[in-house]
Design a protein that fits this description.
Number of strands: 10
Strand order of the largest sheet: 6-7-8-3-9-10
CATH class of one domain: Alpha Beta
CATH architecture of one domain: 3-Layer(aba) Sandwich
Number of helices: 9
Structural class: alpha/beta
CATH superfamily of one domain: P-loop containing nucleotide triphosphate hydrolases
């Protein structure tokens, strides 16, 4: 993991329907790290993610991807930035009427001029990487929750992005399936050097995969803690932060 920022968030003020949920937020994400965004309900985790991937525009501030501001970029410049990352949405967002292979092939067909044979090969390769070899012809409804998440990662990785955003990847999964998904994330990060930005509040996942975390707070509308999860658990001077990291697995996060 290098100390070169691949994402820089500067003075970000954002919210929904005119209500500010994040006020003047600043942080860097370094190339090759697994970076976790966490916090209680309503603290702005999803809002922050949507602003970082260009789905929403902030009220003020910048989101720089390798030095280029996605907020101001338009047309081809914006597309060039978007090509740098893939996204796994919480629901996996697979198209139900298309097979798993067709879902993964979609970004390759849309953004490359590769021949059909090459696309088919890449689809099989991506499925093999996520442990879904042989499931090309299945529909999303025929897969378990964990398999859908893996298929969603395969699609997000179809164009070999430098950055992978994952929104609550362990949500709704049993502990064994969740641990397998965590291992997959760590494996991709180690073998491919992909920068991972993960929204989650699942303690086992945080301890298993995080290089660094930021913790958002609803009342502060900003970051109240930043660092490694063990460091924050043992050394934070904020009781709310300590309570979060010292709670029992499965215990809810009170805000």
């Amino acid at each position: 993991m290098g100390k070169t920022p691949i994402i820089q968030v500067r003075g970000l003020t954002a919210g929904y329907k005119g209500e500010v949920t994040l006020d003047n937020v600043n942080f860097d994400i370094y190339r090759g790290e697994i970076f976790i965004i966490l916090g209680g309900s309503g603290c702005g985790k999803s809002t922050l993610l949507k602003n970082m991937i260009g789905l929403h525009d902030p009220y003020r501030g910048q989101v720089l991807i390798e030095g280029k501001d996605i907020v101001l970029a338009e047309g081809k410049r914006r597309l060039q930035i978007l090509r740098k990352f893939g996204v796994l949405f919480q629901s996996s967002a697979l198209l139900g009427s298309m097979t798993i292979a067709e879902n993964i092939a979609l970004p390759l067909q849309e953004y490359t001029s590769l021949p059909r044979e090459t696309i088919d090969f890449l689809v099989r390769m991506k499925l093999n990487m996520v442990g879904l070899r042989g499931y090309e012809g299945y529909l999303p409804a025929e897969l378990s929750g964990g398999m859908k998440k893996r298929a969603g990662i395969a699609r997000a990785m179809a164009l070999d992005p430098e950055i992978l955003f994952l929104d609550e990847p362990s949500a709704g999964l049993d502990p064994v399936t969740s641990a397998g998904l965590d291992n997959l994330i760590v494996q991709f990060n180690a073998s491919l050097g992909t920068t991972m930005v993960v929204v989650t509040h699942e303690l086992p996942s945080i301890y298993s995969i995080a290089h660094r975390v930021i913790m958002l707070d609803k009342r502060a509308k900003n970051i109240i803690a930043e660092g490694g999860p063990v460091e924050l658990r043992d050394k934070s001077d904020n009781p709310f932060v300590r309570n979060f990291f010292n709670r029992q697995v499965g215990e809810g996060l009170n805000v």
